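Blackboard transcription, Thursday session:
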Amino acid sequence: MPQLDGGCMAQKLFRDPLYDYIAIDLDKHAWLLDLINCPELQRLRYINQLGLSQFTYPGASHSRFSHSLGVFHVMTQCLEYLEKDYMNDFGPGDKDALLAAALLHDIGHGSFSHATESFFGKHEVRSVEIINSTESAVNKVLREEVDKNLPAKVAALIAKKSLKGFPDILFWQKSLISSQLDMDRLDYLRRDSLCSGAEYGNFDWFRIIHTMQLKEKVIKGQQKGTFVVWPDKSKFALEEYIFSRFYMYQSVYYHHTTRGFEGLLKKILQCARDIAKNNKSFTKALLPPMKMLLGGKEDKDLTKFQKLTDHILLAQITIWQNNKNKTLSDLSERLLLRKGIGWTEIIAGTPFEMATKMGKVRKYLQSQGKDHNYYFIEDSTGIPPYKPYSSASAGEEQTSVNSIMLFDPQWSETGFCEITEVSGLKRLQAITKDQSSILRYYFPKEHKGQIKKMLSQNSTSTAG
Amino acid sequence: MKDYWLAKLISSVTEVDSRKRLQKSIYLLQRAGCPLHLNYILHYYGPYSFELAGLIDQLKGADIIDESPEQTGFGGVRYRSKISQKGKSVLANFEKSETGKEVYGQIEPFISYFLDLNEEDPWVLELAATVAYFNEGNWTEAQKQTATFKKLSQNDKNLKKAFALASA
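(Written on the board underneath:)
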């Protein structure tokens, strides 16, 4: 909480279910409130944080807007703490850029968040486009109220792709925005847990923030960099975080019902896009923001994107329920009524092993008058955006972006240690190493018996 | 068929001595036209793909590849990977199918390049992938950016080797 200062301090307070209050100090940062009031950020009120998770957890209908404010709050706390000990690690304007990036990191999400990314573009890319566009309101606030170079700096912090042209963005700053333990995850895990009612997502976030350190690591004299690390005394808070992330992934993000209906949503969009290719009247009848589906020039139209929200997509699908195309209307109805999907899963498999069996299923569906392109959905654990922490993934390229690191000057060589290697935490390896992957298949429920049989027959016979 | 292509590449060598090598080799392969199309970011050690890291986990989880961890002596772990017995037979079976034959044809032209990269010095490989990452049509510029990024002199011997490897 900001300090009261002679009674003249003004602050804006938001009520929040996780932090009680989120405060903005208007004397120091009046521009932040202007940023929040920009249409690009207000739009996130109409985007569900968890896509179609509400089909599984009725309470999980919170918005990206509340999450963005939450990330901002956590970032504020984190920077206040870091400034005390690491003032010299901040350049001029770094703090403003980090606060703005916390608020803006999700403005590029399309309808139902990740569920439609393959159609409306990767959200980080879109966020960066909006922040960089001189046409956008957020760009104007950053540029005119703070600093003309701020939009580019915020964009570089959020951009996944590259640091080109911005070599001065520091890795430790990027890892506060996007890494294995960033401000984004600190908020969404606890928020999604609270709202879904799946209560495994809680952990001691306050301790994680308030024991963070910045340390320089020199590797074989080739390169050195400053990374975010934690001291040994924080290891249990970090362990708890990794377990919550694992539980939330298992029970919420990768829930079979949610993944199935999100898969169906994608098939509806794929089917509509295919119809639009050679049907002018269908294209003409699309709700204007839905024209983004056609790609090309439409895809670059940020004013259309501004209007592309959850309810526009739902309205469109409601209209498609009566479309002449039987497949499109049937799929739309299954989604809106939340019915008619069957599924099965194969544990510890990889898609190409299944190729032959899948070929048979596709043939079967065709013979039943159901186009396999739209009625058969493959889903693999490798794909979802939310993943449990995996220590092996980083391999020997560990940094604070792709792994969680602890530091103790007494530890060998550099003093850095990846969390699952820290003594006393070996039990973490059970959930962070060798995560067997799961393949799921969805199809019309009425064909469940047949298809399940086709997919499971001698599923390991190829193992020889 | 990304999972198949990756498994196929790993099966074409005795072993890949680190995940880092795999990350950088695959990046160079992609820049040479190999159809894996994995998303890469510019990481501290050069181009890095979370998607590839995920694929490796998946192949390992399905027992297609074996990985053995090894402490590197400075707080890290190095993973050596090779195709498993099960992996060999799954690949052989798959390649008998029509789809299998077709996707094998798409990776086949890149196998010999992968063999070469697998023998390359790891530091040169890392630099080469980084130069390739920065290259958007202007190699001199890419070399300059790599030197800045890796804090090297532009006349560094290894950087020159890396440039030769990346632009070959």
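Lecturer's comment: Chain B has a mean pLDDT of 90.
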